[in-house]
């Protein structure tokens, strides 16, 4: 399983200082659709730390989990780019200010449509993890 920290994700997306190109600099068109299929509450008392630095542990707070299918279309040119369709889990925690923030984003490359799209034959179907790994 690929696990990136916040700084690595920012490097992939595109550094704030503009020192290197990331995903947002590479693609002229980025379309994102989310189709929610399920949601649940993960009680903190059921997620103690299994080891030091356990990213899934949250023993002192409950997290909200939203699962669904994400459809991403990322085009560098009108007929060149990637289409991503896969299931993802978004785990969110509530901050002291009452706002919900993303704690974990878990993509499931084994779920969803990994076939090429007939509407854009020159776009390649790919998983989100594979696309990020290329940056």
Describe this structure in words.
The chain is mainly beta and 135 residues long. It has one domain (28-128): Nuclear Transport Factor 2, Chain: A, CATH 3.10.450. Helices cover 13% and strands 41% of the residues. It contains 3 helices and 5 strands; from the N terminus they run ααβββββα. It has helices at residues 6-13, 23-26, 128-133, and strands spanning 29-42, 63-77, 80-94, 100-108, 123-125. Strands 1, 2, 3, 4 and 5 form a 5-stranded mixed β-sheet that branches. β3 (80-94) and β4 (100-108) form a beta hairpin. The longest helix has 8 residues, at 6-13. The model is unreliable at 114-121 (pLDDT under 50).
Task: Describe the secondary-structure layout.
Layout: H1 6-13, H2 23-26, E1 29-42, E2 63-77, E3 80-94, E4 100-108, E5 123-125, H3 128-133
Parallel strand pairs: 3-5
Antiparallel strand pairs: 1-2, 2-3, 3-4
